[in-house]
Amino acid sequence: MKRLLLPIFLGTFSAIAQQEGLNVTGNVETTFQYLNEDTLIGAKQPAEKAVLNNYALVNFTYKNFRAGTRFESYLPHLLGYPDRYSGSGIGYRYAGYSTEQLDFTVGNFYEQFGNGMIFRSYEQRQLGIDNCMDGLNLRFRPVPGFELKAVYGKMRYSFTDGKLVNSDGIVRGFDGSIDFSNFYNLLADSKFKLVIGGSFVSKYQKATHALYNMPQNVGSYGGRVEMKYGRFFMNAEYIIKENDPSFDNNYIFNNGHAAYANLGYTQKGLGIILYAKSIDNMSFRANPDASLTDLNINFLPALTKSHTENLAATLYPYATQPVGEVAYQADIFYKIPKETKLGGKYGTEININFATSYRPVRHTSGVDLADSSRVTYQTNLFDKSDSLYYRDFNIEIKRTLNKRWKVGAKYFHFDFNNSVTVVSKDAHGMINCHIAVVDVQFKINKKHSLRTELQGLWTRTVDISGVPTKQDKGDWATFLLEYNISPKFYFAVMDQYNYGNPIESRRVHYLIGTAGYIFGASRISVLYGKQREGIFCIGGVCRTVPATNGLTITFTTSF
Q: Is the CB of residue 53 less than 8 Å from the CB of residue 77?
């Protein structure tokens, strides 16, 4: 009841405050879990039996001024979060001032330069990531089309015993960009559009090491360009990072680089985008001894499609390799016109995607490995080896048959190197799998609809003798059934079944039931069932998800 009264109280306070010129907005998110022990899937029950993550953000704006704070609780934290997240208190607070030319924030803030390859401070709550800055963020726009950004501060590392804990290292940087369409209207009347930008970011950390003389200041710099002409567009960025010995690269003193580019063409019913990325030694952290998802100054975008289907998204998700990778992706969308033989009455949508990633070539010829400089190899842009990290080919076809029926079919083929991104303890080396998905939606009437999804995954490889064998945990199947009563209720049941596991006792049904209710800007959902152990990824960033069996209740609201 108290959780329901909170948004009502805040909404009432907001209405009163707005009459005085003060605007109040915010959101609340609460996730509660009651967990059971399940020895079959390896799920453990904490001593408290129940866990809770809670967030309540309130923003205040008055004319050009703004301020806000976020209250957080981990009592204790959800499984999979770092153990140093504990207690209740203020985890985020800020104050700022904005005009057309000037915008500054003191306290906590999120910011990004370019594509994020040199600097990105962001929150991804599902992954347990929050590397918000604590310091000063300044934006200056002296003339239209020209913007300067500056950041200075420390990154959030933890939330322990109800207190915000920042890193010891200091992060500082600036970024500038010019949009020539608005910059003195140089390209205002042209079909050609151009935006250029450049960034510099450095960190200071008084780091020590028993064997090496660690640099206290490490800099990174680069530039980017965005162009558009008619239906064509292009985006490219190149970043250089100076020598940055760390836990991730085994404390070598090589420089690092990151290059990213995409080229695309769009028109009605057709879209084509080509991507390329080259990365080497680009782990950039506020503390060189940090690991996993802690204290990342930069973000390296993944060149893989973010799949939403259960088997494709959860079994073999690929993580970006900051130590080095050369990756490519092609994404093609085409809609067969409606009122044609192949397109049907409403048209048929086809999406073809291909992505691949390789280990870069590292040249050691001419490099003195005994040199105390600790530069251990040389590498070139887009110089890939034949060592495959990941390959993903997928095709999707969707068609509306009539006002009631929609159907879709998808096919995936993965080649996944489990030695690079370890998602399974039962496999070694390359995993090859095929996935097929059939999706059917039926609209019963204006408010009621039904959706079902059937998925299958099959692993096969051929040994030297030509005999096909199953890999990893063998074959899987997923069944999903959803029932929606618009706009307030939804119900779903999903069963992920490892029917082809070579070990018969591990042929487990991971059955989950979900129900939800939406009222205004609030939503409450209830989930009960089993979740298998694995890796959960968003945008190429991943965290380990432990096996769980129990009840999950989530409440969200905004005001």
A: yes
Distance from C-alpha of 433 to C-alpha of 394, rounded to nearest angstrom: 12
3-state secondary structure 461-519: EECCCCCEECCCCCCEEEEEEEEEECCCEEEEEEEEECCCCCCHHHCCEEEEEEEEEEE
Cβ atoms of 50 and 79 within 8 Å: the answer is no
Residue length, the chain?
559
How, if at all, do strands 170-179 and 476-485 pair? Answer: unpaired
Burial (0-12, 13-18, 19+ Cβ within 10 Å), 100 = exposed
- Candidates 227, 301, 303; CA nearest to 264 is 227
User: What is the residue whose two structure tokens read 């929150």?
Assistant: 123
Q: What is the pLDDT of residue 319?
A: 86
What angle is formed at CA 549 by the lines to CA 544 and CA 551, rounded to 5 degrees? 110
Q: How far apart are CA 129 and CA 543, in angstroms?
A: 9
Query: Residues 482-494: pLDDT tens digits?
Result: 999 999 999 999 9
Beta strands per DSSP E along 337-447: 348-360, 384-400, 405-417, 430-443
Task: With H, G, I as helix, E, B as strand and everything else as coil, classify residue 184.
Answer: coil
By the 10 Å C-beta count (0-12 exposed, 13-18 middle, 19+ buried), 390 is classed as buried
Distance CA 530, CA 537 (A): 19
Closest CA to 302 of 274, 321, 316, 284: 321
Residue 275 pLDDT class (50, 70, 90 cuts): very high
CA distance 498 to 549: 16
Q: How many Å from the N-terminal Cα to the C-terminal Cα in the chain?
A: 18
In this predicted structure, the answer to whether residue 204 has a pLDDT above a threshold of 50 is yes
| pLDDT for 369 | 60
pTM of the model: 0.89
